[in-house]
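Two proteins were folded this term; both appear here.
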Amino acid sequence: MASAKKPNILWVFIKNVASPVFIISAIVLAVKQIPGVLDFLQWAFANAGTTGQVVIVVTTGVGLTYFAVVSMNRQERVAELKAERGMLEERLRLKEAELKQVEENNIRLAEEGVKEDIWRRDVLGAPRFLEKEERSARFIALLNLKGGVGKTTLAANLGVCLALMDRPLKVLLIDLDFQATLSNMSVEAAALLVAGQSGNTSSRLLDRTLARDDFAKLVLGINRVPTGRIIIADVALERVDFQTQARFFLEPKNDVRFLFRSLLHQREIADKFDVVLFDCPPRLTTSTVNALTSSDYVVIPTKLDERSFEAIPRTLSFINNLRTIAQPKIIGVVANEVQFWRRPKLIKAHQNGMARLKELVKASDPDLYVFEAMVELSTDVAFNKEKNLVPSADKGVRKALFEPVATELRTRIGK
């Protein structure tokens, strides 16, 4: 850590010695104006004796000296803390720059993958996409190629809201991010451990030998949500995603783009649920491609800042580049973690952000919809996530934060 800058000794003396002396003098002058008080103090000092007077003077001097020394030490400590804060802020800035570079690298790699393009290879015998009229389930992918926009939190809370409304829907959440944030906030730790040890996680959906009867073993209940179900993820998903993509790269006939569809678009499964939500990672993985080839709709969450906006055109481009194999409708962009001045008025920065978002969306796709409802930033969300509980399982949180977006989504998908 850089050495703290020493405070100016003259300034310290003025601030911590001269100023207190001045204040004391002012108090003495004020006391003079109070009848009898000054006479009493003079009498007390005169009758204290020589020893008492010496004690009073020495005590006063020691007190002032101690006060000055303590104040100087405090100033030095404040300077050290300021220097330390500067160091931490610099480290944070470097980490943010490093994270942004990683995100940009991931995006470039994904773009190259689409251009090269194993994902747009000719399709040979893809399983049937069951039309909406033939099934109960509506398949929705939540996707943004920018991390940290609250996508997983939105996926979890939309699903739980839909499952706990006055007219509840049967909802299945599928966690496709190996970090398993959605899984951890939805299921008790003991159940997660058992499912992980038995291998009953979302990576099994990439196993073409998975039978329909085995599908039920993957499905767990969501805490305090009777009609909510989830297929959890674990760290094995990253390896399985990569291995599956590698096989397809080496053996084009081993098509891995429709593994989810071959299972989820069977009537026996598609009729068990009203809504299936895929929580996609901010990467174009094998699982992400499978979610898109199975989905009716895509929802793009974003925060109202420029860094979050940067990924929206790329996300749209990725989806459009996959139109030969996937045709989900991009149902809209949802503003997440917004701050209100007084409802419905946003704080100035987010007002400007919303205007910029609509401008960007219109330039990218004039028909693309921006949800009227928004999700407010709230400490209640973080508090509940730490308890293996989706925040919307709490009625107050659900009504205040997420239900307006869930209601608008439900209207747009016709459920």
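Next, the second protein.
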Amino acid sequence: MDFVSIIIVNYNGARHLRDCLGSLKSVDYPKNSFEVIVFDNGSTDDSIPVIKKIWPAVRIIENPGNIGFAPPHRIASGLCKGDTLAFLNNDMKVDKNWLRKGIALLDPSVGVVCASSKILSWNGKHIDFYGGSLQYLGYADQLKDVTKENGGDVLFPCGGAMFIKKDVFLEAGCFDDDYFAIFEDVDLGWRLRVMGYRVVMAPDSIVYHKGHGTLDSKKEEKKRFLMHRNALMTIIKNYDAENLKKILPLALILAVKRALLFLGVEKKEFYFWEDREFTQPRQNNYKEACLHLAALDDVFESFEKIMGKRAEVQAKRKRDDSEIFPLFKDPFRNIMGYKEYLWEEVSLFGNFNLAAVFQCDEDYGKRVGEGIYQARKTLASLLKQIEKISSETNTPVSSDTDKKPLVRKFYKNLKEKGIGPTVKKTGDYLLKRLR
């Protein structure tokens, strides 16, 4: 029977540890075949006394400060006894079969070296994690309504409740220390796939998630900064050379586009040929815009180091990107609501032939469809405006013929954004409507 080292990272989580450690004491697994290690990130609450009171045998690694989620797992895995590692968030409680059912699926002989638990809400009524999807720019999302048979392949585990062979975790380079937190499990899962290994779901290994844990206590913009920065680092490290050439320019361009949209900057005010001056943009999304730019700058400053990590990942490559992409599930998921962003992004899809790269013509079509939907909404808004003017001036709009100038103006505005698939299809839709 495998000896398992259960590793819990804690930061001011005394209110969670009673439930977490209490549930571990009841697992259906021989007590002499597992150990529990709590890596404490310099907690200032009574976490340490609580641990010692609940379970004196728990091994505590006390760190003087908070170094995040990723580094503690590397440090603890180098000090633990087990050949199999189990990672558990401090705001989880486990089912009694959690440990047994999770490690049962690990089988290095067929490449299965990592398994992810099924995560339910605290009351067990909702699914928090049952596999995940990955957007092509590196943004992961949790799947909550997809049924997977026991052992079904997934791209990445959830770091909050997962199992992995220690030798493979160390071989892969562990979680990347520089991530601090967020998407470190996505990066690890993708790296494992590149190396030729498999990650699977273990639906019978069940945990319950309380939420409102360590990261939830931090400001939202700090979490979103990590999300955007880490997504960019993930794609730089893990795409093969040919695909990185296509996708990295898009990632950089679109990050700047998102920042400008959040700032509300009207770039035409900087054009010599425009007869208007720059005006102060809206400020309500100023922080959101800045964190996109700060994430970019952080990657630029660390680019040489990230490229060194990329070289290490690619040197271990045993599986082509084309074999990994089906596990992305939803590579063209829309990550931003601005229709201007969506139109330009879909246009770039065509220029860089991403639909063929991911073999997702149907999903690509859905994104184009979303662009048409947004165009319909904009057209409806314009029509309401003209009807209002008609009512105010007592000038009737008698037929669609009277609306054609409005539509032509709208189509012209679309074309000014650059001809792309969405613009063309939107224009075609509008013209057909008036025939």
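The two ends are 73 Å apart (CA to CA). The mean pLDDT is 86. These notes refer to the second protein only.
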